[in-house]
Amino acid sequence: MSAVETTRHGPGAFTRAVTEIVHAFNTNKTSWVGLVIFLAICVLALLAPVIAPYDPIKQHIADALQPPSQKYWLGTDAFGRDVWSRILWGGRISLLVSVASISIAMVIGSTLGIVAGYKGGWIDQIIMRAMDVLLSFPTLVMGLLVVAVLGANLTNLIIAIALTVIPKFARIARAPTVAVKELDYIEACRALGYSDTRIMAVHILPNVIGEVLVLASLWTATAVRIEAYLSFIGLGVKPPTPTWGGMIRQGFEYILDAPWMCIYTGLAVLVLVFSLNLLGDGLRDAVDPKLRNE
Amino acid sequence: MTKPVLSVRNLTTSFKLRKGWFPAISGVSFDVMPNETLCLVGESGCGKSITAMSAMGLLKGQHGCRVSGEVWFDGRNLAELAEAELRKIRGNKLAMIFQEPMTSLNPVLPIGLQVGEPLMFHRGMTRHEAEQEAVRLLEQVKLPDARRRINHYPHQFSGGMRQRVMIAIALACGPQILFADEPTTALDVTIQSQVLALLQEIRDEHAFALVLITHDLGVVATIADRVAVMYAGEIVELADTVALFKRPSHPYTEALLRAIPRSDRDTEELVSIEGQVPPIHDMPPGCRFAARCALREDVCLAQHPPFALLSPTPRHDVRCHVRARSAGRSAA
Fold first, then answer.
1. What is the dihedral sign for C-alpha A144, A150, A155, A158?
2. Residue B184's pLDDT is what?
3. In angstroms, rounded to a whole number, what is the distance separating the alpha carbons of residues A174 and A179?
4. Long-range contacts for A57-61 (Cβ within 8 Å, ≥24 apart)?
5. Closest CB to B151 among A1, A195, A198
6. Which strand ranges, in their side-by-side order, compose the sheet holding B37-41?
């Protein structure tokens, strides 16, 4: 209320958005948990150089495959590298790759989906058939394709993951768009002379964003996994640089003799995914006024 | 004589069905005078809403839809205007409110934003200015506690309140013509009369022309200056409200008026019109009402009746062979 009367356009809108999100988070307390865990993971990953007890790359062959102990909290891998230190360092790349690729895919994918759903006709056909083509490529093949064309590095890894996930967002955004555009208030918007761009951005997007955010929180987890097997075929992050996906893959070879490599790295992925899911739920409630208790 | 603000000439809108293109409205022509209330009346499916939407240019270029004819407004033919030009007029000089207030507002945006949006879009106001103006508009449509309620969402309002919000949105840019497509149909009777009274009041205050679409002759009698009766996609009678109720000329109008249940008469049964409206894909070559008409003659089945002048002042036109002939005879 006070934001409306006291502030100008920019800060007013921003303050209100923040107030609304805080309000929605308060009604759904678990989203605070999600936010706190996610931020904690980000801080730990950022502070890796300070808090990691060992160098993540330097090998101590004598201490190979040690179980968790006082010296190595989460044990060591086949080359005697400390798993805890590698999880901290690996978090930086895994977070970057997953969050960046999913953000890109979310923006591009849902834009395409909304345009396809709203415009319909041949535009819809072209966009969605293109999405079908993208979907028909297995992630691995898509990764190889991107490498062959652009070369192997971190940026291209992000692009490759984004490309495979874009169609999912396009589909999830298109479905509610098709339903919403038939409703009276979209007709009313046209009767008010609004442009198509405005109708899509101001009136349709808020109806779609909830589903898109939930999907994004789920796919961020999958992106960590995709990064693992794309790194395995040599696209993107090469060993010995630690990434969560790469560590799980490597640990898999020793799962019977040294299960701690897989277990603890997997746990890190699990906690990240869990926090993002809680966060996604909260964000969905924040953008959907119908779910707010007022 | 005053010039009309809107002149619709020969408006025809066809839809594509399986067997080809069929006109939902054909040859619709009427004028809207400044600051008058013109009612379009007729039963469901007779083309009232299609007429309003075609006049606003909302159907042009839509899939499976073809519009022809002329719509003159402000010296320009809207039917020939590019979509971008049309957008500057819609919501600005021509506004429209819809039948269903429960679904005509965006459920995920606060109403202050929705009322202010046309001002931001057409007038380039900032969000803050638009919000202030929205409060003023909402007060004008008598929404209680407007300043506080601009942050509320549509689901927190009742049907009548929402219709008031819709009216405020339509009023935002000071339109010259307001199309109201059955604005009271979804409301209960007491709220209906409040909303009608409000429409009339702000029409006088803002001096715009109101084109009201309704199937309720009671509403027509209360609010209309002139009435256009539609049947099967055509205007069959266009007259002054008083003249129409006193001397209905088209047999369909007569039948409609007879069908109004009256409390001062002791009737056992409700009157209805025998027969069916001809389907869109099977319109008879002659008069469209002929099959249900008591005055039917051979010419009615063979020839499509023209829209004939019955009396010049106040102007009264009717689309009926029999009535046009007898009027001609008495004039001669």
1. negative
2. 85
3. 9
4. A57/A81, A57/A240, A57/A241, A57/A242
5. A1
6. B94-97, B177-181, B209-214, B37-41, B226-231, B234-240, B316-318, B308-311
Q: Tell me what pLDDT residue B210 has.
A: 94
**Considering only CB atoms, which chain A residues are within 8 Å of B89?**
193
Cα separation, B81 vs B57, whole angstroms: 9
Q: Where are the alpha helices (DSSP H) in A54-204?
A: 83-119, 121-136, 139-150, 154-181, 184-191, 196-198
Q: Give the global pTM.
A: 0.79
Measured distance CA(A231)–CA(A249) in Å, rounded: 10
Nearest CA in chain A to B125: A9
Nearest Cβ partner for A191 among B56, B112, B131: B56
Identify whether the C-beta of residue B60 lies closer than 8 Å to the C-beta of residue B53. no
Residue-wise pLDDT for A96-146, tens only, equals 998 999 999 999 999 999 999 999 889 999 999 999 999 998 878 888 888
Whether the predicted pLDDT of A23 surpasses 50: yes
Rounded Cα distance, B12 and B14, in Å: 7
pLDDT at A10 over 50: no
Kindly list the distances between the CA atom of residue A2 and the CA atoms of A16, A19, A138, B108, B147, in Å, as whole numbers in the listed order: 10, 11, 52, 21, 11
Top-ranked range on mean pLDDT: pick from A160-164, A237-241, B105-109:
A160-164
Q: Half-sphere exposure of residue B299, counting CA atoms within 13 Å on the CB side? A: 9
DSSP symbol at B269: S
Per cent of chain B over pLDDT 70 is: 98
Residues of B in contact with A205 (CB under 8 A): none
Predicted local distance difference test score (pLDDT) of residue B218: 86
Angle among Cα A12, B161, A293 to the nearest 5 degrees reads 55
ipTM over 0.90: no
Confidence of residue B330 (pLDDT cuts 50, 70, 90): low
pLDDT digits (tens, 9 = 90+) for B131-162: 999 999 999 999 988 888 988 888 889 888 99
SS3 B105: coil
Radius of gyration of chain A (CA): 22
Of A1, A188, A193, the CB nearest to B122: A193
- Cα distance between residue B225 and residue B37, in whole Å: 5
Place of tokens 């000439």: B9
pLDDT in the model for residue A287: 67
Contact A143, A158 (CB under 8 A): no
**Measured distance CA(B242)–CA(B239) in Å, rounded:** 8
Mean pLDDT in chain B?
88
Which residues make Cβ contacts (< 8 Å) with residue B156, sequence separation at least 6?
A: A294, B149
pLDDT score at B190: 87
* Positive/negative CA dihedral, A45, A48, A51, A53: positive
221-280 in A: which are within 8 Å (CB) of B? none
Phi, psi at B68, each rounded to 5°: -135, 170
Placement of tokens 């799980």 in the chain: A248
Give Cα separations from B252 to A160, B224, B277 (angstroms). 68, 19, 11
